[in-house]
Amino acid sequence: MSPGRASPIDQALAAATAAREVPGVVAMAVTDRGILYEGAFGTRDLDGGPAMTPDTLFRIASMTKAVTSVAAMQLVERGLLTLDGPVPDIDPALNTPQVLEGFDPAGVPRLRPARRPITLRHLLTHTAGFGYEIWSPDLVRFVAATGTPPHATGKIAALRVPLAFDPGTRWQYGINLDWVGLIVEVLSGQPLGRYLQEHIFGPLGMADTGFAPSPAQRDRMARVHRREPDGSLTPQPPAPPFVPEFYSGGGDLLSTGPDYLAFVAMLLQEGRRDGVRILQPETVALMRRNQIGDLDAGVLATAVPALSNDVDFFPGHRLRWGSAP
Q1: Whether 249 contacts 180, CB under 8 Å
Q2: Cβ–Cβ contacts within 10 Å for residue 36, how many?
Q3: Which residues are CB-contacts of 289 (< 8 A; sequence separation ≥ 6)?
Q4: With 80 as the cut, is the pLDDT of residue 1 above it?
Q5: Buried/exposed 146-173: b ≥16 CB within 10 Å, e otherwise
Q6: What pLDDT, in 10s, does the model give residues 116-148?
Q7: Confidence of residue 5 (pLDDT cuts 50, 70, 90)
């Protein structure tokens, strides 16, 4: 990158990393016609780590959800799953769900059966009733009162929590795509990572995307940093090796900018990328449409300020939801 030819995007990202507002960044932009922009700035680690490069691996968190949604829609196309029928019978928490209505004076949860079954459409659009602890004080209280493992433990029992409302009646960001990942495993007969590798990552050439990085990939990972109250960043120690009981279809993937861009480009190109068909065009069109009617989405009040701020995805706008968020 020549200083004389630096674009406004280059200048903004270089300035942010120089000011230590972020340790480093890989930025890419693509349309259905090709790549518009790519750049890498800063370092992988504020403690003097190597420079950020396009092949740096990141924990992509909830960007995992769109990948799991595509896997589920592949099964819909194959006739193994439907959007509006009850989901496959894999766990009582999913198939005979309970709604949390509060707590009695002794702090015991008050539960009742949900008034309708959960469907795949509910799960894909976060209208099933499942939440995340960081945005649900009642769920925090339920976990503490019942000894349910926290979601971060990676235990299947952490998913066996009640709903905040009856399916289809509200929107609430939550563990829905974790359940979708388990449904993909049951119907495909494969672990989620293997299914994604065979049906999405491999065909798209996403060689650096998966749940369990190799030693060589670990050497290219960006370090996690914590934002302090004063806005500064503190590098966190590397997480110890950890094999969960299930890999989260809602948040456990690692990937690189170029890999994820290939996935996004596939969706922009109606389910096809470099001659490889991942989804049918009509499926992609369906995923892009509003699937929740007039329900409001996108606003979350934190229940655990140490882990999350309040969230408003598009301040000042009423947000709707499709099945490829």
Answers
A1: yes
A2: 10
A3: 322
A4: no
A5: eebeebeebeeebbbbbbbbbbbbbbbb
A6: 999 999 999 999 999 999 999 999 999 999 999
A7: low
Virtual torsion, Cα 188, 323, 313, 135, nearest 10 deg? -50
Task: Mark whether 247 is an active-site residue.
Answer: no
DSSP 92-158: HHHHS-EEEEEE-TTSPEEEEE-SS--BHHHHHTT-SS---GGG-HHHHHHHHHHTPPPGGG--GGG
Q: HSE-up of 205 (CA within 13 Å, CB side)?
A: 12
- Quick check: is 65 catalytic? yes
**What kind and span of H or E run contains 207?**
none
pLDDT tens digits along 37-55: 999 999 999 988 899 999 9
Structure token digits, residue 69:
């949604």
Q: What is the pTM of this model?
A: 0.93
Amino acid sitting at position 131 = G
> Which of 69, 132, 173, 195 is flagged as catalytic?
173
Given the residues 65, 132, 188, 255, the one annotated as active site: 65
Report the C-alpha gap between 260 and 38 in whole angstroms.
Answer: 13
CB atoms within 10 A of CB 51: 11
Please tell me the distance from the alpha carbon of residue 50 to that of residue 240, in angstroms, as a whole number. 21
Q: Is the separation of the CB atoms in 98 and 112 below 8 Å?
A: yes
Comparing CA positions, the residue from 287, 290, 297 lying closest to residue 169 is 297
Amino acid at the residue 303: A
